Amino acid sequence: MLTLHAPVTPLNPHLDLPLPECGCVPRHVPPAAPSIAPPQLWATLSATTQAQARQTILQILQEVLHDDPTA
């Protein structure tokens, strides 16, 4: 009697990567992020987002100013 088996996939497959001869792996260095000045960033926000940000900043400042240091 002929028994057929489904192909078995290894549980932990490894990729053959081209590594330098020394065996060390070169570190990936991400590209530098573009710099943007705060006024430029603020100008990209919609009027609604600017208003929400102002309200959030105001709430944070009020919490800091009225924080009970003994708490």
What is the element layout, followed by pairings?
Blueprint: H1 38-44, H2 47-65
Overview of the molecule:
- With 71 residues, this protein is an all-alpha fold.
- It has helices spanning 38-44, 47-65.
- The chain is elongated.
Short synopsis of the structure:
This protein has 71 residues and is mainly alpha-helical. It contains 2 helices and no strands.
Helix content: 25-40%
Terminal CA distance: 80 Å
Tally of contiguous helical segments: 2
Largest sheet: none
Structural class: mainly alpha
The percentage of residues in β strands lies in under 5%
Low-confidence stretches: none
- Radius of gyration, in Å, reads 28 Å
- Written as H for each helix and E for each strand, in order along the chain, the element string is HH
Mean pLDDT: 77
Number of strands: 0
Shape assignment: elongated
Any descriptors?
mainly alpha; 71 residues; elongated; 2 helices
